[in-house]
Write a structure and sequence with these properties.
The protein is built from 18 helices and 17 strands. The strands form 4 sheets. The chain has a 7-stranded parallel sheet with strand order 3-2-1-4-5-6-7, sandwiched between helices. Strands 10-9-8-11-12-13 form a 6-stranded parallel sheet, with helices on both faces. Strand 9, helix 12 and strand 10 form a beta-alpha-beta unit. It is globular. The termini are far apart.
Length: 538
Amino acid sequence: MLLPGILLWIFGWIIFVLGLLIRRQFIRKHWAKYHKMSGSPLLLSIFHPYCTSGGGGERVLWTGVNALLRHRPHLLIFIYTNDSDCLTAPSFVFQHVRNTFDIVVKDEARIHFVPLRSEPLLRPVLYPFLTLAGQAIGSLVAGFEALIRLPSDIYLDTTGFAFTLPLFAWLLGARCGAYVHFPTVSSDMQRRVAARTSDSATSYNNAARIRRSRVLTILKQFYYVLFRFAYGWAGSAVNCRLVAVNSTWTRRHVAELFGTQPYLLYPPCPRRVEERVGGEKRKPWIISIGQFRPEKNHMLQLKAFEIFLKCISGDKSPYRLILIGGCRHTGDYKRVQRLREAARQMGFSDRQVVFEVNPPASRVNQYLAEATINLHTMVDEHFGIGVVEGMAAGLVTVAHRSGGPLMDIIGPALAQPGVDPGMVNPTPVGYLAVRPEEYAEVFRYVLVKATPNQLEPLRTAARQRAQTRFSEEVFCKGWLNYVEKLEPRWIWLSSNEMRAKWQGEIECSHDQQWTRVKASIFPRPRTQLPYGTKLQIQ
């Protein structure tokens, strides 16, 4: 009885996979007809359930999608989400993207939102214990639903749910990729758990009862080892053709976990952040840009601002700390409320510490144009697009001495408080700190001691670094190159090009049509061209 059962199980899976392939072909023909495309389009699906959250990951998503819409006319883009606005009022979502990121989505008709009803299984609040494992299992369920609803040619995970990759790779044969903002688990996390210390880097994901117990600490380390193994396999080359990462810090950890060499692609700095006033006209304000998540460590910002005000004399009313960020759900709004209460307990008025929750892009632009310091406090930030935004706008940035700010953004050209930036070669682009006292020292130097002329070389160097190395143009070029590496090796030929030669000869017989020809017809594999390439008539 066992053998027939196994054979029946195998037969069932074969039928299921064949059904997916047939469904994909039907979907491809349906949308090609709907969009009046003369050829067979490529279906590219993106797993980004929270595509309207308004964070740095969403900026990457929509900048990348917009680039594909402009330069890849043969692509149809599908985004898996459970957001009600996406599913019922897409035009409102595109307007929200424009208001939040100043990104005008082109040819939005080629973007389709696919309902993902199992999205609640991805939320960490459902798993008070074994959160990583719970979310991984939840992502398998959500990934399976996504696979059935829209079986695509190319599958991209842009939110860190790597366990969805094997489903698309093995059951559908899709060409899978992932843009990793930060690894779900890392060796740094394991070291901090082993250290059993309480600090800003561990307090939000390592409960006090675990830190106090040696046995629970050992069990959690073992749990991390098992999860690292599973996570590493999910993102390895057998499931994911190419992994893109957003920073040197992330690349180091992902290479260790996945055993592959990731594609480094820095997130885009928006073109909208351009300096509008000189340093001498800016106000003594400190701004922080980042979602109100626990790891952003906003309490450290309040403590640093408190120390700064205590160490200066005279009128303190001009100085402000402005916390700018997005809230994804009820938990984030409650966190903002707790921060407000903490600020009041420290003696700050609502004018001294300002909270800007989910502000429009125009409001953020105003603060970037008027403030002096751009503040960042997250430990091991994978990159730090808010840091780059401030630099591009001409602010003096002070960031945490770890992760992306240390390795990619500021660390290579670091300034020291008390030292005239204009006297240093190469010119520094910002400051790094760890303890609240260090942050306060930088605040005091920049806002009280240094003159605008002394800070101008730093601000100029920071602006230039942000606009050249981390610009939208650089990102879009790299993003298109990355997606091209995932595309099937097909060649599009226009029928009005009656004859084209490329290491061989191809005939096109139907006028005003597109003919798809496999690149393998060419004599050598290295002559294969990416999907979408037009051959020049000889």
